[in-house]
Amino acid sequence: MIIILGVSHKTAPLDVRERIAAATDDPDRILTRLSSTPGIGEVIWLSTCNRVEIVASVKDDAADQVYYFLREELARQAGYSDGEELSQYLYDKRGTDAIHHLFRVASSLDSIILGEPQILGQLKKACDSAARLNTIHGQLGTCLQRAFAVAKRVRSETSIGLGTVSVSSAGVDLARRIFGDLSSCVVLLLGAGEMAESAARSLGHGARALRICNRSMGRATGLAAELHATAVPWEQLEAELVEADIVVASTASPIPVVTREMVRRAGRARRGRTLFFIDIAVPRNVEPAVHGLDNVYVYNVDDLQIEVSRGLRARQGEVEAAERIVQGELDSYVAWTRSLEVQPTIVALRAKVRSILSSELERTLTGRLQHLGSSERAALATMLDSAANKLLHEPSMRLKARAAEHGDAQRLAAAVQLLFDLSPPLLHGETQAEPAELSENTAERPMVSRVR
Amino acid sequence: MSLEPKDLLFIAAAIAYLGASVLFTIYLLGGPAKTGRWAPPLVAAAAVLHAAHVVWSSLASHVCPVQGVHFTLSLAAMLSALTYSLVRWRWRIDAVGAFVAPIALTFLLASRWASGETREIHPLRSALLPWHVAANLGGVALFTLASAAAVAYVIEERLLKEKKLEGVFQRLPPLDALDRAGHRFLALGFPLLSFGILSGSLWAHEVEAGGLSAVVRAVLGYVSWGLIGAVLLLRSAAGWRGRRAAYGTMLGFSVIVLVLILYVFHGAHTSTVAIVP
């Protein structure tokens, strides 16, 4: 069974999430220790700014015990007196619920910003770390791979990842729609506050140059050093307007700092080059009349907010389709795992039938039919092989289908074991790779090879 | 009635242009993204079919492609579609195909009306004439593309000014890419047009013999050359970029289209192929 224990933006305030994330800054060490805990078969550790989750595969009868252990462990790491204190922020998902949650998280349906792509990368990174430390290898590994496939389907078959969902990204998107490639653009920041910094981080990466113009030169210099930009004195604002392609305005000025006349004068020297203002200041920093000038475009917070709302609405409209994909994939995955539960019994049944037929064949070939040549013996063995396969094919398929459909694999397996006097096969969860190995190497070995 | 291979190629090219135009229209109106992915290759396929049609027709009628107004029109359309297909990815102007495909289709169909006999070429002019015509049709092809980029620019710029960022705006190429592409097409086409004008001037004294239509054609040819030259000059000298350059380009191309219309409806029965003078 897969269990998930964690906190997210939906269950815990930021300070709790910070406390847990900070206390668990060495995931490798934690993973190694958790994986050696009795009852835990596989485990991964997912830590992002919005969630911290432990995903583990455990034996069914050990789920409660593992849950309490993980809760205490998490509480101890985060400095809480005991797990009870932390439990109000924790969620506990098990079995199908846990798989559903994992699929939704990977598909970014559980994120603060619906459809954001980072979570999939973070989950893949967590999976890679676990694989490197060999803490995933079977059921959980398969489930994670399926979660990645589900996320890929959701992204490709819905528009949940499209559209703009923040003011600064709306500004960047619009800049790209105007200039295409930003690598030839000069970005000028007016103001050096938090908003400017946020916009600069979105825009500055791909730009040819980033300049920061602020009334306080000291602050501009500090931010410029942080962002590998150039600080310019406030007095040079008009001269900078000649060079800039994109201007992000976010000063606290109560009156516009960029006037129509100023831009018109700069326009002469600009020789008609396009100039795009992203005015995210309130009150506005750029006179609205600037938008009326040729090849100059001014977009303020309200204009960009419309884009953000549109983007969010569009994403929200895709949730239903995305949830349908997730549910469909979950049903198919659960059916597949259920069908696997009867696989050891099927293998044992086939092995028993083959063993009986093989010993009967040997007895006959050493008795009444001992005069047969090798080709006749081989033909007889092949015939019995084929008959056994045909006879067992239908019951095997029906067992798998019934188990997948109704989820009563254990009852069915027990009935088959009782009817055919089979010794109980390996329990589900101990290994899932073995049935295939069994069938290929031993139980399914053709009788023809044994009679030769 | 049995169709000849050249007719089949003509029909196939026309259907491909039409298909591309329809796909582009669906894409621009907010249809599935895949329509926008399929349309540009369909323009390329149409251009190839179109080229095959021109070559086949030329071989079948034993006429050099540049020695008949019907071939010239057809070639100009084909060249513009082919050039678009070659540069669209690098210059990021995929959606310009939405304007190129219908124009190419119109030229292709118009070439049917223009098809007719070709006049025997004067021995003194025969050496220069194919070069004159080739330069003109290259110029026309490039101005077609410049004009397509200009139309897309004007639409997108208007939407940006009006802050209507939904629908078509999202599907058009970046504004600056359109401006740059338009300028490049003009800059490449202008020397060709200039050569066409200069070479055409060599026998301009014979224009009067062609009647009023030929005179109007010649005058309009000079006007279009002047307009496009002015657009390029003002761009480099006075920073006329963006909307102004786009309107100038569209105006210049409109005059060229007028010249072509005169050829199609009034010049085919007597003329060879001098698009401009």
Largest sheet of chain A: 6 strands, parallel
Which band does the percent of strand residues of chain B land in? under 5%
Helix content of chain B: over 70%
Structural domain count of chain B: 1
Separation, N- and C-terminal Cα atoms of chain B: 40 Å
Largest interface: A-B, 20 and 22 residues
Could you give the distance between the termini of chain A? Answer: 44 Å
Q: In the CATH hierarchy, what is the class of the largest domain in chain A?
A: Alpha Beta
How many helical stretches of chain A? 18
Helical fraction of chain A: 55-70%
Beta-strand residue percentage of chain A: 5-15%
Structure explained in plain terms:
The complex is a heterodimer of chains A (452) and B (277). The model of chain A is unreliable at 427-445 (pLDDT under 50). Chain A has a 6-stranded parallel β-sheet, sandwiched between helices. In chain A, strands 2-3-1-4 form a 4-stranded antiparallel β-sheet, with helices on both faces. Chain A has 3 domains: 2-161 and 318-335, Beta Polymerase, domain 2; 169-301, NAD(P)-binding Rossmann-like Domain (Rossmann fold), CATH 3.40.50; 342-451. Chain A has helices spanning 14-23, 27-35, 63-78, 83-87, 95-106, 118-132, 139-157, 167-179, 194-203, 217-227, 237-243, 260-270, 301-341, 343-366, 374-406, 409-420, 434-443, 447-451, and strands at 2-8, 40-47, 51-58, 91-94, 186-190, 209-214, 230-233, 246-249, 275-279, 296-300. By secondary structure, chain A is of the alpha/beta class. Chain B has 277 residues and is mostly helical. Chain B has one domain. Chain B has helices at residues 5-28, 33-61, 69-87, 97-114, 129-161, 168-171, 175-201, 211-238, 242-267. Residues 117-124 and 268-277 of chain B have low confidence and may be disordered. Classes of the chains: A alpha/beta (452), B mainly alpha (277). At the A-B interface, α8 and α13 of A face α7 and α9 of B.
